[in-house]
Amino acid sequence: MVKSRKRGQRRKGRRFETASTLVLGRARVRRPSKIRHSLLLLLIAVAAGALWLALDDRFYIYHADVLGVTSVSPNEVFRASGLPGLHILWVHPDEVEARILAALPTVKSARVVCGLPAKCTITVVEREPMVMWDEGGQLWWIDADGVVFPAQGTLSDGWLVRGPLPRDEDGRLDERVRVALTELWTAGANVSPLLYVPGRGLVFTDERGWRVIVGQGPGMAERLRVLEHLAANLQARGLTPRFVDVRFPDAPYYSEKNEW
User: Fold this and answer.
1) Distance CA 258, CA 239 (A)
2) pLDDT tier for residue 156 given thresholds of 50, 70 and 90
3) Domain map (residue ranges) of the chain
4) Share of the chain above pLDDT 90, in %
5) Which residues, in sequence order, are CB contacts of 231 under 8 Å at separation 6+?
6) Which CATH architecture fits 129-255?
7) Which ranges of 104-248 does DSSP label H, i.e. alpha helix?
8) What is the CATH code for 58-126?
9) Which residue from 32, 110, 172, 197 lies 20 to 30 Å from 235 (Cα-Cα)?
């Protein structure tokens, strides 16, 4: 009896094991087909979305909001950006900003922000000219950094300088001349219009009608003080010089006969 019961339990166990194995086998066969079906649907959806993005005209840029412009027009900035007709996904703000700065020297900085579907905003900061330089009839504007760019008109508040335009290797105003102009501007000197003479630097005619050579480089405030002391001395002596040279404050020079 004991042996027959054990044989019956073994047979039941075998039947159970066989059944469970068959169930598991069926699950493994069905699962890959469902995954393939899901992947196929996903690929179709991705392809359809990509095709929609590529062909839908709403994702191409035909307009941008341009902020901060005064001397240049919004259309000039937009054209210089290279954005017209560009797909929104192909926009690289750093490259767009670089194109604007390269094409428009009057622009000091540019910031580009774009978003879906095709909305772009360009914010620029324009250069503020401090000096208008007349180089033989060719008019230039120059800002406080020494950047030279074509004049867009006359300056109501800036100074006028005439003469050959000294530039450095980067095309900017010579640093010594830029420093001299900045110091004269800061000192509030009434020196416009100025004349630039190679080898002598900046020259102006003061309220007394004297030609004054102030040169270039730093130290303009000291040179202006020396000029006032020298002028007081000359006037006290009844002398009227043709020019006064204060380029070297320790040894100012004047002449009643010579032009220079």
Assistant:
1) 14
2) confident
3) 2-55, 58-126, 129-255
4) 72
5) 206, 208, 210, 244
6) 3-Layer(aba) Sandwich (3.40)
7) 175-186, 220-236
8) 3.10.20.310
9) 197
pTM for the predicted model, two decimal places: 0.73
* Sole residue written with tokens 């303009």: 220
Cα→Cα distances 57→87, 89, 90, 208, 235, Å: 9, 13, 14, 69, 78
Q: Tell me how far apart the alpha carbons of residues 132 and 157 are, in angstroms, rounded to a whole number.
A: 10
Q: In what order do the strands lie in the sheet with 253-255?
A: 148-150, 138-143, 129-135, 159-162, 194-197, 201-205, 211-215, 243-245, 253-255
CA distance 231 to 167: 33
Tell me the pLDDT tens digit for each residue of 170-191: 999 999 999 999 999 999 999 9
DSSP per residue, 162-203: ES---B-TTSSBPHHHHHHHHHHHHTT----SEEEETTTEEE
Which residues pair with residue 11 across a beta bridge? none
